[in-house]
Amino acid sequence: MRSIPRTESFPAHTPAVSQVFTIVLSHGPLTRLEVARRAGLSAAAVTKAVRPLMEAGYLAEGADEDAPPALGRPANLVRVDGGRALFIGVKVTGDEIIGVLTDLCCRIRVARHVPLTDHDPKAVLASIADLTQELRTEADDFGVQVLGLGLAVSGDVDRGEGVVRYSPFLEWRDVRLAELAAMTTGLPVTVDNDVRALTVAEQWFGTGAGLTDFAVVTVGAGIGCGLVVHGQVVAGAHGVAGEIGHVVVDPAGPRCHCGNRGCVEAIAGDAAILARVREVIGVQVADTAEALALAHRGDAGAREVYARAGDAIGRGIATVANLLGPERVIISGEGLAAYDLFAEQIRDSFAEAAFGSAARCDVLTRPLPFDEWARGAAATAIQSFIRSDT
Amino acid sequence: MRSIPRTESFPAHTPAVSQVFTIVLSHGPLTRLEVARRAGLSAAAVTKAVRPLMEAGYLAEGADEDAPPALGRPANLVRVDGGRALFIGVKVTGDEIIGVLTDLCCRIRVARHVPLTDHDPKAVLASIADLTQELRTEADDFGVQVLGLGLAVSGDVDRGEGVVRYSPFLEWRDVRLAELAAMTTGLPVTVDNDVRALTVAEQWFGTGAGLTDFAVVTVGAGIGCGLVVHGQVVAGAHGVAGEIGHVVVDPAGPRCHCGNRGCVEAIAGDAAILARVREVIGVQVADTAEALALAHRGDAGAREVYARAGDAIGRGIATVANLLGPERVIISGEGLAAYDLFAEQIRDSFAEAAFGSAARCDVLTRPLPFDEWARGAAATAIQSFIRSDT
DNA sequence: ATCCCTTCTTTTCCGTCGTCAATAAAAGAA
DNA sequence: TTCTTTTATTGACGACGGAAAAGAAGGGAT
């Protein structure tokens, strides 16, 4: 990721500084002593680590808020000054580009999306550049600089090299996206797989904060999965990991575009559900929304299809739990609109197929706003920024 | 693991020392410069790290052997002096206890096994103590001290606490095995799950050396799986991980003792294969060996059963590969006696069910001598010893 | 033979990081 | 006011690892 651009860089002089900042970032305002405890450092080290970060404006002394009057010297909370820096996250899908402007705490300030018609890398790059420029103009209104750009693309992405190895939706192969985007925008660019980006957001700013082992499962057009093991996002030796969508749960099931039968995605993906509803009810069902409406109206056939999808997802999650024993599984994705239809079946099938203590893993759902994917991209940019000096 | 015993401890004063020793341990004799390169340290740091280890006798200057006469000062190879210390590894199964005496390089010096009749913790402990004592006597013949005892037990084991949470074969629940064994033997004791122990052996002394992401799959009475992700063995948040045996590959398959249908183990476990062969051929098939012989003799029915087992294993491995994208999968276990019957089917099914680049993962087999399980236990003891001072 | 060249190893010096222990600060309680 | 309690800071100190230069141990060239 030899980023040519010369922007401000993070004063992460030492490992302790990075560690302290990361802890404050993901665990809200904390006293220095508490930070020391969590980081396994001495209080002195925290004081020393905090100073340069406060001088640079990244950390601030927090308001005591509703401090229950305790004995002894009152604690001075340390928190991240979110407004200190802005980042842009962009998610590229087959038919649109979603961009968000976030602050250092990954809170969304502005969100935009533009349709995408041409999949040629040059055209996509131009769209990204336009959207980025637009968001940077917005940033100027806050009077704060944008310090990084994150791009999330589905498919096989090498984050370290900033290369999209293969993206089926865009029909890209070996596109050096980070380099190209850095050239046109002049920003440091991070490129990552979309599900992994979402997982990073969850790990640093969401429900996965503080956990060393968890999984994020996304339900929508495809079924994806991001994994965090030993506190790090799993990328796979060949750049592919978390392909829960192509775990086979029923060898007698419907054929999947990957060539196999009964993949989770071939049963619970949007297209699969729609196809199956049509098969059961008739071709007059126009789209996913209509299928959903049918099921909500109580149509037995449609409900059955959704239940089967829930079963497949539940089994898929159980497989992840059996293999990795995560602390938590976070289910998310656009498909959650139909969550009330899946929910029970997911839980039942998970409980049934999970082995022993693996079933103790806690499964929760998080609705996914449409711009959350882009926020994930921003999270990777923030991550890269913080680590840039390491 | 508050180990009461007072034995010699490893001089791992600094992280660099540990790292250097680990590298030399698993990558054979190396020049100091090569070690520096692999560890990301300076040559000076390696020299400094090596000195105390050589003074303590753990490292030695290696013979140049077949040094191809190169330019410049000839290299001084550094290697681990295996004979410097001995370790004992014990694997406890339902019906016997296998013990090995290994050196610091985890090479087996002596192997013993004794039958086990009584599953009561006290009785098992007594057997372990006897076997340990016997092996320590052997160790005296070498004039070297035994510095640690590793115990491998199947089931849910908490290595950190040294507790066997639940072992189905032994019918144990929450047995504080490390503590008990330390008391009776006076040695530092490490207790771990058997498959994880085998994985540690593979990671440090076997085909997994140097890899940061790989899986070990054991085929036998049960189907197990040890995972290494980000260079660490996966233990799971609740102590359970790698349960590939209970991944469902065919919901219409035979019922498994875990309550589900079509688990890998319910199709490819020894008992499952035997049951199925009987079903196909007749009850006169006495045991696994006979089933195997039948298949080897070319009986179509038996061969079919083995092929189906291979298919289940291949699909299971593909699931692991899809989720984690390991660099390599090592197939091992007693069941490998039948490997020629599985092999093709495993590979075919794996290739078919693996998604995208996940299929690039290299699948290899390693025959598993009967005392390899105990060697795994010894490996965990060595690991604990080396980290004891960290 | 002698000198040079190459490569591996060691030494010496030095900067940095984080801990320790002592001290300061900021309250409430006596 | 003074004491107690808890949090934060300071400064001395020690340890670790890097940089650079010197040393060591050959082979090859003249």
What would your notes on this structure say?
- The structure is a homodimer of 390-residue chains.
- Chain A has 390 residues and is α/β, with parallel strands linked by helices.
- Chain A has three domains: 15-83, Winged helix-like DNA-binding domain superfamily/Winged helix DNA-binding domain (Arc Repressor Mutant, subunit A); 85-201 and 371-386, Nucleotidyltransferase, domain 5 (2-Layer Sandwich), CATH 3.30.420.40; 210-365, ATPase, nucleotide binding domain (Nucleotidyltransferase, domain 5, 2-Layer Sandwich), CATH 3.30.420.40.
- Chain A contains twelve helices and 16 strands.
- In chain A, the strands form four sheets. The first copy, chain A, has a five-stranded mixed sheet with strand order 6-5-4-7-11. In chain A, strands 14-13-12-15-16 form a five-stranded mixed sheet, with helices on both faces.
- In chain A, a hairpin with a 4-residue loop joins strand 9 and strand 10 (172-175).
- In chain A, helix 1 packs across helix 2 (32-39), helix 2 crosses helix 3 and helix 9 crosses helix 10 (300-324).
- Chain A is globular and about 70 Å long.
- At the A-B interface, strand 13 and helix 10 of A face strand 13 and helix 10 of B.
- Chain A binds a DNA duplex (30 and 30 nucleotides) through helix 3.
